[in-house]
Amino acid sequence: MESKKIMASGAFDKPMPSVLLIDDNEEIQTANKEYLTAHGLDVSCADTGIKALALLNEKQFDCIVLDVLLPDLDGFAICKAARTITEAPILFLSCIEETDDKIKGLMSGGDDYMTKPHSLKELNARINAMLRRGSSPKKQNGDLYIDRENKIIHALGKNVILSERELNLFLLLYENPNTFFTKKELLKKIWHDSAEIGVVAVMVLKLRRKLEFAVEVIGRIESEYGTGYTLHTQRRRD
Q1: Residues whose CB is less than 8 angstroms from the CB of residue 11 and which lie 6 or more positions away in sequence, other chains included
Q2: Which of 74, 111, 188, 205 lies 20 to 30 Å from 135 when distance is taken between CA atoms?
Q3: Alpha-carbon distance 3 to 16, whole Å?
Q4: What is the CA radius of gyration of the chain?
Q5: Domain 152-232 CATH (choose: 1.10.645.10, 1.20.1600.10, 3.40.630.30, 1.10.10.10)
Q6: Burial of 106 (0-12, 13-18, 19+ CB in 10 A)
Q7: Element containing residue 175 per DSSP (H, E)
Q8: Which fold has domain 4-135?
């Protein structure tokens, strides 16, 4: 049974958000658990991947904090396995700072990546930010959430990492559905006329390939008469 906070009147408040911490460092686990518990979270712990997956099969968690280096399974494998069980947001918390590992974590199904040594205050803030996203905006358009800050599109259970210009191009088309833009217009809006017009077609092709799996929730980028593009979708522009 999920933990509930009992108010002074004897009535029950809303259930505390539940968090699963997966880390084999006992000192870090203890510090994280004590701080998060003191800030209103219901915290469970696991020090191996096997224990973590067993807990995920037993209980529904609202958020998962996951280390990469564990004694049995690596965090990326655990993340992929967890994604077959739960849609709860996953925050990687690791001593590995390499960009490739951060990207690998996000591509394996993670929602955020934080490095050790870390601030407990920041950890709590990031968890609460993910809890807010998980409870509302991520479900605004089916299974689609656009993380503008990190330039990631979460769609149909997958994460797509975009470059800054790819994101700007996507947002322009997505926020103006079924609106036709000529190549010259896109060049001016995205590149500010600082590149050759041929780059527009190249980037549109890359964007199409990255997002073709999510046509049902995003729409399809189509060309018109070879001169420009539109995002064809059932949505209407507000």
Answers
A1: none
A2: 74
A3: 7
A4: 21
A5: 1.10.10.10
A6: buried
A7: none
A8: Rossmann fold (3.40.50)
